[in-house]
Amino acid sequence: MLLPRMIRERIGMDNSDKLLEIKDLSVSAYLYSTSVVTLIGKRRLENGDVLFQFSPKALAEKLVDQYWNLTAPAIQPKQLFNAQRDLKDMIFSGR
Asked: Which backbone phi and psi does 81 adopt, to 5 degrees?
């Protein structure tokens, strides 16, 4: 399934086959709260938007697909909210 365009941005570099960049904070918080994929970093666009980078790409895409189809593996609410807080800190701290 092709991911919704509003949450997916492809990296225009050689590592595009290794990383998935996500703009949506809720999806990013879900991915970050799982132990299945790794948050590699973030990239700030010229317009100020932040894309979170996850690896491995194939597993991240699978989790995003499950997220949108309401079949994602369950996680503890505290994990999700801690992940969301951490991502917001990354956005607003400029790191």
From this structure: -70, -35
